[in-house]
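During the no-cost extension, the postdoctoral fellow (Dr. R.K.) reprocessed legacy sequence entries with the updated structure-token encoder. One reprocessed record is reproduced below for audit purposes.
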Amino acid sequence: MTKHFVTICASLAASAIMATHAAQADTTASSSNAPQVSIDQPLMSLLAGERDALGKVTSNQLIDMMNPPADASTTAAAAKGSTKTVSDDQLQCLAQVLYHEARGESRQGQKAVAEVVLNRVDDPAFPNTICGVVNQGNGRSCQFSWTCDGRSDKIANRAVFSRVSDVARAMAGGAPRDVTSGATYFHTPAVHPSWSKRFVRTARVGAHIFYRKPVRTASN
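Re-encoded structure tokens follow.
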């Protein structure tokens, strides 16, 4: 039972009991020497009045009572969480990076790598599209080594690619980025890039360690 419904019932019942008391004013005065009657009479009148009032409520009115109009802030929050539209080629790029960089990781580990790509898209220091981020650089400056290591990028395991594609679709569609705390870089424990000493370590998920650039303030 909602608070809205209870409030309406109380209002209806209050109106009913006021009418009942008005009609029985003389009787109450003459029976004041009976304590039990004076205690129970208002309660019984209240219940009877509430029952009578509710009996006059139509089915449609009852539905309206139980389902008040949605609060504006709730409606706005729902709209804010709506799914983003991402083109197929951008989804393909994200799925490919998950396949080549994180296909052996748990779903959480794959989400973490997806976060890095999407966080870069939002960072002015990087390209503003998923494919732009994934394919940024060439030779030794490639951001993702599989894009320029000279090996075939052919998808050998379609079942695995289908699974990472689901992760890519969810993350690109607006799923919460709650794994890496805003990371824009990652590496495996097998390597020790020089930049890792300058950046803030945010998480370790599976076989990857994640970092973000330190926040610059006016004092530094």
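The mean pLDDT is 73. DSSP finds nine helices and three strands in the chain. The remaining legacy entries will be reprocessed before the final report is submitted.
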